[in-house]
Design a protein that fits this description.
The protein is an alpha/beta fold. The chain has a single domain, classed as Vaccinia Virus protein VP39 (Rossmann fold, 3-Layer(aba) Sandwich). It has seven helices and nine strands, in the order αβαβαββαβαβαβαββ. Helix 1 runs parallel beside helix 2 and helix 6 runs parallel beside helix 7. The termini are far apart.
Length: 205
């Protein structure tokens, strides 16, 4: 089974998953990806974490609404003239994630008991699980790429973490990562590593 992806720096995502620290032995581990698309990011996270935690109970939460949605993908998208590159061609049309892609994702992960897919927007998921007692050990933010959306996601998940939890932000240069990072210092998150497109913060206390 070959699972594809449309992001970058999967090698860093793999490294950060495989080296996730545990300051106290967890009874269970939870990871999450917002913006699953074809599923490669989720696969990389799951393989990396499972090599790290062995037989401990593990859940990976995958969140993506799919479909053609009209929303601002980046800060001041129209003013900045941001375009997307698909199949080697630059276009001003935002990407579409059709139901066929969702169907393929569900099929690809159908035999993975650790994979839980939520066909929701980030807001729908957070509203539904606002009172959850889940603790998230690693979250990959690869959904909306506006400062307000990423900030809202980061603050929601930050309140549901423990010492050693890691946040990975994709394409962090297209939104105000400095502002988001400053907000996360309230929960003792600190930048530990970064590439050209992804950055990783870890909760230090």
């Amino acid at each position: 089974m070959t699972i594809r992806g449309d992001s970058t720096e999967y090698d860093l995502l793999k490294k950060w998953s495989e080296t996730l620290p545990f300051f106290e032995e967890p009874k269970s581990v939870i990871s999450c990806e917002i913006g699953v698309r074809e599923g490669l990011g989720s696969q990389v996270i799951m393989l990396g974490l499972q090599s790290r935690i062995g037989n401990k109970p593990y859940e990976h939460i995958a969140i993506d609404p799919y479909g053609s949605r009209e929303y601002e993908h980046f800060d001041k998208q129209k003013e900045r003239g941001i375009k997307w590159k698909r199949d080697g061609v630059w276009t001003a049309t935002p990407p579409v994630y059709p139901d066929e892609m969702k169907t393929q994702l569900v099929q690809d992960f159908s035999n993975n008991k650790n994979f839980n897919f939520y066909n929701f927007t980030d807001t729908q998921f957070m509203n539904l699980f606002n009172t959850t007692d889940k603790i998230f050990d690693l979250v990959h933010f690869d959904g909306p790429h506006t400062t307000k959306d990423v900030m809202r996601e980061a603050l929601w998940f930050a309140d549901k973490t423990r010492k050693g939890s890691r946040f990975v932000f994709d394409d962090f240069f297209v939104y105000d990562m400095e502002l988001i990072g400053k907000a996360l210092t309230y929960w003792d998150f600190k930048v530990l590593d970064q590439g050209d497109n992804k950055i990783m913060l870890q909760k230090m206390k």
